[in-house]
Amino acid sequence: MKPATRKKLAIALGVLLLSALVAGLLIPKLLDPDRYHNRIVEEIEKALGGKVRIGDISLGILKGLWLEVDGVEITGASAFPLDFKLSRIYADVSLAALMKKKTVLNHLRLESPDVQLRLQPGPQQPTPETKDPASGAKSGGIALPIVIGDLLVTKGRVRIEDGLTLPGKTMMRDFCRKGAGAVSGNER
């Protein structure tokens, strides 16, 4: 290879590398998820039927696609009987799986979760007859399976309000993380 060809190739590779670096730094700034903060909160509230609060949302692509959300709180959800708060959620998303229209979280970190599960007796109603799915009934939404590679929960607490075990009396159980893998339960 001639020296002039090597020089042109080196310049082309340098420009390509510099363009990729600039794109990696600028794309997260241009696609600021905080711009869509209110819409995200509204859609989650509509889906869960409760009150949702979300702090700062950030994402990046420099070391792979990642998403970080500060201060997540969901209370009074009608979709499930629990309230929870998280100081931070960090997710490392697989780009290869996204290209195949799948959601794979290589790493998911939940920091300082505070979960309260409410087990209450519901009204005793006969179960409605189930229809055959082939009879034209459409599902309420699209179920998107999420695969989680590594899950890390730090400094967590789970409280269960049990109104099912003893009718008329609510039992409380707290499960707090004491050390590496140790979980304890306290009844009140």
Number of helices: 3
Work out the strand percent: 35-45%
The profile of the biggest β sheet is: 10 strands, mixed
Q: Which of globular, elongated, flat, extended, rod-shaped describes the shape? A: elongated
CA-atom Rg in angstroms: 24 Å
| SSE order | HHEEEEHEEEEEE
Description of the molecule:
With 188 residues, the protein is an alpha+beta fold. The chain has a domain at 31-120 and 147-187. The chain has helices at residues 3-30, 37-48, 95-99, and strands spanning 51-53, 57-60, 65-75, 82-93, 103-111, 114-119, 146-154, 157-162, 171-177, 183-187. Strands 1, 2, 3, 4, 5, 6, 7, 8, 9 and 10 form a ten-stranded mixed β-sheet that branches. The model is unreliable at 130-142 and 178-188 (pLDDT under 50).
Which helices and strands, and how do they pair?
Blueprint: H1 3-30, H2 37-48, E1 51-53, E2 57-60, E3 65-75, E4 82-93, H3 95-99, E5 103-111, E6 114-119, E7 146-154, E8 157-162, E9 171-177, E10 183-187
Parallel strand pairs: 5-7, 6-8
Antiparallel strand pairs: 1-3, 2-3, 3-4, 4-5, 4-6, 8-9, 9-10
Task: Please sum up the structure shown.
The protein has helices at residues 3-30, 37-48, 95-99, and strands at 51-53, 57-60, 65-75, 82-93, 103-111, 114-119, 146-154, 157-162, 171-177, 183-187. The protein is an alpha+beta fold and 188 residues long. The longest helix is centred in the first third of the chain and has 28 residues, at 3-30.
